[in-house]
Design brief:
Blueprint (H helix, E strand, L loop, with lengths): L13 H4 L13 H6 L14 H16 L5 H5 L8 H11 L3 H11 L8 H13 L3 H14 L3 H12 L4 H12 L3 H12 L7 H8 L4 H13 L6 H13 L3 H15 L5 H13 L3 H13 L6 H13 L3 H13 L6 H13 L3 H13 L6 H13 L3 H13 L6 H13 L3 H13 L6 H13 L3 H13 L6 H13 L3 H13 L6 H13 L3 H13 L6 H13 L3 H13 L6 H13 L3 H13 L6 H13 L3 H13 L6 H13 L3 H13 L6 H13 L3 H14 L3 H4 L3
Helix pairs in contact: 3-5, 5-6, 5-7, 6-7, 7-8, 7-9, 8-10, 10-11, 10-12, 12-14, 14-15, 14-16, 15-16, 16-17, 16-18, 17-18, 18-19, 18-20, 19-20, 20-21, 20-22, 22-23, 22-24, 23-24, 24-25, 24-26, 25-26, 26-27, 26-28, 27-28, 28-29, 28-30, 29-30, 30-31, 30-32, 31-32, 32-33, 32-34, 33-34, 34-35, ...
Keywords: Repeat
Pfam families: PPR, PPR_1, PPR_2
Protein name: (wild Malaysian banana) hypothetical protein
């Protein structure tokens, strides 16, 4: 499915570049000394009880063993007044093979208002480890660490006599990490090395995952230097750390070096983490190459891996390719979950391909996957964006009926859809419903409402709404200001639009290409080309790259103002700077040269357009046909008509009228009649002059029925004479 490029193996990276020599400042011993001078664990034996204490302990232990099913409070109540902390340790000596009773005794002792001695907690933890109760041991070790400063020393001191199972130190290390004493964990690792104990890689991985990236690297190198053999999960923690910091290149190098330097093979998590990072940062090529590499190594991608690729492809508007990945996912036997379906549904919704959306929803339901709030929101967004508000609202009510709670994004999708349709009452009804539900509209919600008001000409109301939004502590964004500027320009208030752009900059927001293009368009339409041109210079001075729409706005402005030579110079300026115009750029020039009947220049521009690799569109052909008809160049007009029909384009109403009139003038009545009937079949209205021509023709030919039909049609359909000449 994907193109595979062989990865180049870089030089060793973190294992060499980040390895630090252990200095005497960090360790009280050289590394080679550790291997030859391991210190022994201290000898320990509890102090001996007095006769009175020994008898009390025997009575307590006997009672616990004989009355195991009873509550410790009932069993030990008679002994409470004489019980001291020393009795805990002496009792543990008799209960070391019975962790349940050790725990019961300890649990009974705690509420007495006296702290449990560090030694007793350490011994209880050792007993739990030896008895195969690691979870209980870890809890006891955590309690000891929290309540006693020198608890680690107590664990080490009692180890030889009570435990001699090294896994207790994995649990002690994990307990220190649990309470987030990370420096102490690293110190413990170094200290245990002096006793010949190496904490396991799995225990150390928990520490790695909590460290900042720099500390993670130094700890990795240091522990490896001290004898720890890291594993695949350890490298995965490093990969995740680099990916989280945006350093995907370094993460990739770790993956490449794992087998050779650490002796750990990358697994599905290694690849999936890196693929997901590449996808999050938009690096599709690297992600797909890694995906292929996974397959080469016999590793089966999981749903998370596939979803990462599908998400990026949908984000890049490559929804068809995303579905190919989805198909491969199912082919490989990886069942897509509702997250994968929702991602793909959202992609098709944003591209407006609703039939594909409905198909995926049916597939999802057939797979017994239940759409959640995110799925419904994606569907509602897609329907709202396509203007299908009836279906969007129906789906919204279905969602609520199923007990799913719409969120701010769901409501905003519906509100935006109603605003685009100009149904502001419905939009504000939903806004109020949001508030009643306890949801807080965000800046996107208010931007949609503001944009809708502006399109209705209610710019002052929109402005008031935005002031209210700012008062609520929401920061307006570029889109919000742009919607207001667009509304002001549409009602012709360019001065206020410019002032709003100044306010936008004062708020710390930079006007973008859309902001400038909107105001330039307003200046161009009002014939103020100097101001429009000044804005272009300002854009370039600020390093804002104009879009092709920006240049087309200027071009149309120059042409509308009759400044055709300025338009030509703008086109030359664009080509000199390798800014590729499109058909709309050329169409503005072609239209106005055609209107002046300077067809020689029109032909020259058209040839330049084709030489630049710009293909004419439907509008181009209609402009050329009308222009040549006006200039009575019917041969050229018919040539372009034939070419455009061959490319699947259609004549506009104006082009039909111009061609028919021109053909009649040239006495080519059969062709003219054919076009007239074609025009009528498409329900396009001919102008009055064309109707008069064919009424006269049919009357002359004594075709009275057709003559009367055309008379009635002309009366019914013809526009006022003032509109007929607007081609």
């Amino acid at each position: 499915m994907f193109r595979h490029a062989a990865a180049t193996r870089p030089k060793s990276y973190f294992f060499l570049a980040h390895r630090r020599q252990l200095s005497s400042q960090r360790h009280a011993f050289p590394v080679d000394f550790i291997a030859t001078a391991i210190r022994p664990f201290p000898d320990y034996s509890p102090k001996k009880p007095a006769i009175y204490d020994a008898e009390l302990v025997r009575s307590i232990v006997t009672a616990l063993k004989q009355r195991r099913s009873e509550s410790p409070d009932v069993i030990l109540g008679p002994f409470a007044a004489r019980f001291r902390s020393d009795h805990l340790v002496w009792a543990f000596l008799h209960l070391r093979s019975d962790p349940v009773l050790v725990g019961a005794l300890l649990h009974w002792y705690r509420p007495r208002g006296r702290p449990v001695p560090a030694e007793a907690l350490a011994i209880a933890a050792h007993v739990a480890v030896v008895s195969g109760e690691p979870a209980s041991a870890r809890r006891l070790l955590r309690d000891g660490l929290v309540s006693h400063r020198n608890f680690v020393d107590r664990v080490i001191y009692t180890y030889k006599y009570w435990c001699s199972v090294p896994s207790v130190f994995d649990l002690l290390f994990g307990a220190i990490v649990d309470i987030n004493r990370l420096d102490e964990a690293r110190t413990l690792f170094r200290h245990l090395v002096t006793y010949g104990i190496i904490v396991s890689a799995d225990a150390c991985n928990a520490l790695l995952s909590r460290l900042t990236l720099d500390h993670m690297l130094s700890t990795f190198s240091e522990f490896q230097e001290l004898g720890l053999r890291w594993n695949t999960k350890s490298c995965n923690v490093l990969i995740h750390g680099f990916c989280g910091a945006g350093k995907t290149g370094e993460a990739h190098r770790i993956l490449l070096e794992m087998e050779g330097t650490v002796g750990a093979s990358p697994d599905i998590i290694s690849y999936s983490t890196l693929i997901d990072a590449y996808c999050r940062y938009g690096e599709l090529l690297q992600a797909t190459e890694l995906f292929e590499e996974m397959g080469d190594k016999g590793l089966m991608p999981n749903a998370f891996t596939f979803n990462s690729l599908i998400t990026l492809l949908c984000k890049n508007e490559k929804v068809v390719e995303a579905e190919r990945v989805f198909t491969e996912m199912m082919f490989r036997g990886v069942a897509p979950d509702h997250v994968v379906y929702t991602t793909l549904i959202n992609g098709y919704c944003k591209s407006g391909k609703l039939p594909a959306v409905y198909r995926l929803v049916e597939e999802m339901k057939n797979s017994q996957l239940v759409p959640d709030t995110v799925t419904y929101t994606a569907l509602i967004y897609g329907l709202s964006r396509s203007g299908n508000m009836v279906e969007a609202n129906k789906l919204f009510r279905e969602m609520v009926g199923k007990g799913l709670s719409p969120d701010e994004v769901t409501y905003t999708a519906l509100i935006d859809g109603y605003c685009k349709e100009g149904k502001m009452n419905d939009a504000f009804y939903l806004h109020n419903e949001m508030l009643q539900m306890g949801l807080v509209p965000n800046v996107v919600t208010y931007t949609a409402l503001s944009d809708g008001l502006c399109k209705q000409g209610e710019v002052e109301t929109a402005n008031e709404l935005l002031r209210e939004t700012s008062g609520k502590g929401l920061e307006l964004n570029v889109f919000t200001y742009n919607s207001l500027i667009n509304g002001l320009c549409k009602i012709g208030n360019i001065e206020q639009a410019v002032k709003t752009m100044v306010d936008m900059e004062a708020a710390g927001l930079c006007p973008d290409v859309y902001t400038y293009t909107t105001i330039m368009d307003a200046y161009s339409k009002s014939g103020e080309m100097d101001q429009a041109h000044d804005l272009l210079r300002e854009m370039l001075d600020k390093g804002i790259q104009p879009s092709i729409v920006t240049f087309n706005v200027l071009m149309n402005g120059f042409c509308t103002a009759g400044m055709l030579e300025d338009g030509r110079r703008l086109l030359e300026w664009m080509l000199e700077r390798s800014i590729m115009p499109n058909s709309a750029t050329y169409n503005s020039l072609l239209r106005h040269y055609c209107m002046e009947k300077t067809m020689k220049t029109t032909t020259k521009i058209y040839k330049e357009m084709r030489a630049s690799g710009i293909m004419p569109d439907e509008n181009t052909y209609n402009i050329l046909i009308r222009g040549h008809c006006r200039a009575r160049n019917m041969k050229e007009a018919c040539y372009f008509h034939s070419e455009m029909i061959g490319k699947g384009f259609s004549l506009s109403r104006g082009s039909y009228n111009a061609l028919i009139k021109g053909l009649v003038r040239k006495k080519r009545l059969t062709e003219a009649t054919q076009l007239f009937e074609e025009m009528r079949a498409k329900n396009l209205v001919a102008n009055r002059e064309i109707y008069n021509i064919f009424i006269d023709i049919n009357y002359t030919e004594q075709n009275i029925e057709m003559t009367l039909e055309l008379c009635d049609e002309a009366v019914e359909k013809c526009l006022p004479e003032s509109d007929l000449n607007k081609i």
